[in-house]
Amino acid sequence: MSGEVLSQNEIDALLSALSSGEMDADELKKEESTKKVKSYDFKRALRFSKDQIRSLTRIHENFARLLTTFFSAKLRTYVQISVASADQIPYEEFIRSIPKMTILNVFEVPPLDGRLIIEINPNIAYSMMDRVLGGRGISVNKVENLTEIETKIMSQLFEHAMDNLREAWGTIADIDPVLSEFEVNPQFLQMVSPNETVVVISLNTQIGDTSGMINICIPHVVLEPIISKLSVHYWMQASKKEREPEELIILEKRIKSASLPVIAQLGTSQISIQEFLHLDVGDVIQLDQSIDKPLIINIGNEAKFTAQPGKVNKKVAVQIMEPIKGGDSDDE
């Protein structure tokens, strides 16, 4: 039986069609018994679940926000970057989908295996470079004739931007992106086999008046060691990290060496504002503390002990008499 649940309106419509003769119950039984075949393209092997794709989308939404902040400060102009889509496709299809001449940055992400590609639309790349050089952010697509200086400026700009990728990926892996190649022709870039599944995250990018796409291509081999961390169970579980014994010893030493204010409260008094304004040197304020009652010792802001005043080696001192019990802050 099908696991689909019909609404009451759908049930009523179905019963009405059967009773009026518009539909035949025997034909429905035959249709249900017929095997339904679903076509499967082995070239487009789906190696990531929808749940894992959603997790990657969330990670790169955070990356897009970080990039927006980074490029806004770096280029000093309006920048808006957001995730447009996240899909899993064969590597060959990704190469065919990008321009024949474009800006390709290949990054290694140790300790993970493999490499990932950051493809930047030439319009976006040239607009960024123009802003870095003090221009208005005008885009001139001449990717075939990049000079050595232009190549260096672009590669350094995107290399510094990858610090944000490290931060965005921090929830699933501690990576250290390193730029390994800078290429303009995707046909010269054969990282994995053509049928290898890759995840492509496309970012809508607006730099001033120029818009374009930034595509992040992540092969399956890169994500394979951390694929279990892309599930909802990993994100939702309340995992508590147990401290090592050495950490507990260090923590205990630091707590023991922490300083706390110890205050002996000699007493309190209340006076009017008028009396306070007329206080002068030599005036005496009478406290409400009786000399035959113990003093209160405060540790921080908490009353912890009673004590009696006295002297030790001609210095004023207090002697602890007993702890004050009661209250939520007391240890039993």
Automatic annotation (TrEMBL):
Origin superkingdom: Bacteria
Gene3D superfamilies: CheC-like, SpoA-like
Keyword annotations of the record: Bacterial flagellum, Cell membrane, Cell projection, Chemotaxis, Cilium, Flagellar rotation, Flagellum, Membrane
Pfam families: FliM (PF02154), FliMN_C (PF01052)
InterPro entries: CheC-like_sf, Flag_FliM, FliN-like_C, SpoA-like_sf
Compartmental location: Cell membrane; Bacterial flagellum basal body
Limits of the Flagellar motor switch protein FliN-like C-terminal domain: 254-324
TM region(s), chain numbering: none
Membrane topology of this protein: Peripheral membrane protein
Main subcellular location: membrane
SUPFAM superfamilies found in the cross-reference section: CheC-like, Surface presentation of antigens (SPOA)
Role description: One of the proteins that forms a switch complex that is proposed to be located at the base of the basal body. This complex interacts with chemotaxis proteins (such as CheY) in addition to contacting components of the motor that determine the direction of flagellar rotation.
Similarity-based family: Belongs to the FliM family.
Name of the protein described by the UniProt record: Flagellar motor switch protein FliM
Species whose genome carries this gene: Bacillus salitolerans
